[in-house]
Specification:
The complex is a heterodimer of chains A (91) and B (168). With 91 residues, chain A is mostly helical. Helix content of chain A is 66%, strand content 0%. Chain A has one domain. Chain A contains four helices and no strands. In chain A, helix 1 packs across helix 3. Chain B has 168 residues and is an all-alpha fold. The radius of gyration of chain B is 19 Å and the shape is globular. Classes of the chains: A mainly alpha (91), B mainly alpha (168).
Chain lengths: 91, 168
């Protein structure tokens, strides 16, 4: 995807806009409303808050995991079956 | 969900599986580590400090597994791995500081080149993407996109793992 290795010292506004549009496609909040006229600054702000939210989710999951691992004395061995099961449910 | 993503690569689950495998192995290693008390009986009450330490180890393992699964292809994963490794080697404090200072200088140099429209927001985004301080605007936006996709994968896999172990 990032096959562009253009070492242009001055990125054009169009290039920036294109990349920002790509970001917009990843953000769930902005895709709820079919408003394609979200400003660049809005998209960037949403990106920041989305990353922040994802960080927090990872933190919460880590907390729960640490509690789970502490509570259960035994830990299931890493095996193919477990991983296949885990991955098959993720789309 | 990301049907585009899966069609571009025949094995779109390779990143997921690498992360899952790496993370589960790390968890297993963490679980094997002896706690502060050498007794084998599980402690029902642990000090806040111990809990914090456990949480941090898991958090770091999650980030390290994710960055390792991505490999050195991406600037953010390289930056994240570097950060984790420099933290772990606490004996070489001075080198870690030097690295962070280098990055700051580079970021400032790039900023002076051109003033962008959304300069303020881009500056804010730099702090959220690992290694963002040293990237130019285009790379930052590109890396941010990939980083978000990987974070999503991380959350999904970890949720699955938590669900799996809460059910048992």
């Amino acid at each position: 995807m990032s096959g562009r290795t253009t070492r242009a010292s001055q990125p054009t506004e169009d290039e920036i806009k294109e990349l920002i549009l790509k970001l917009q496609a990843l953000l769930p909040q902005l895709n709820h409303r079919p408003n394609t006229k979200a400003s660049a600054s809005t998209i960037l702000e949403e990106t920041c808050s989305y990353i922040k939210r994802l960080h927090k989710e990872v933190g919460d999951l880590s907390q729960r995991l640490s509690q789970l691992l502490h509570d259960s004395a035994e830990f299931v061995e890493v095996d193919e079956e477990l991983i296949t099961r885990l991955l098959s449910n993720i789309n | 969900m990301n049907s585009q993503h899966s069609s571009s690569r025949p094995n779109s689950s390779s990143l997921k599986s690498r992360f899952t495998l790496g993370f589960l192995r790390a968890l297993k290693r963490l679980n094997r580590q002896p706690s502060s008390s050498s007794s084998s009986q599980p402690q029902t009450v642990s000090s806040p400090r111990e809990m914090c330490r456990r949480y941090l180890r898991i958090r770091i393992a999650a980030d390290a597994s994710m960055a390792s699964a991505v490999g050195s292809r991406r600037a953010w994963s390289r930056a994240l791995l570097l950060k984790i490794r420099s933290r772990q080697s606490r004996s070489s404090n001075s080198s870690a500081r030097r690295v962070s200072m280098k990055k700051k200088c580079l970021g400032e140099k790039i900023k002076k080149k051109k003033k962008l429209k959304c300069c303020k927001e881009i500056k804010k985004l730099r702090k959220f993407v690992p290694g963002g301080e040293a990237m130019d605007a285009c790379s930052l936006l590109d890396e941010a996109g990939h980083y978000i996709r990987c974070l999503n994968t991380q959350v999904k896999v970890m949720t699955r793992i938590v669900d799996n172990y809460s059910a048992n």
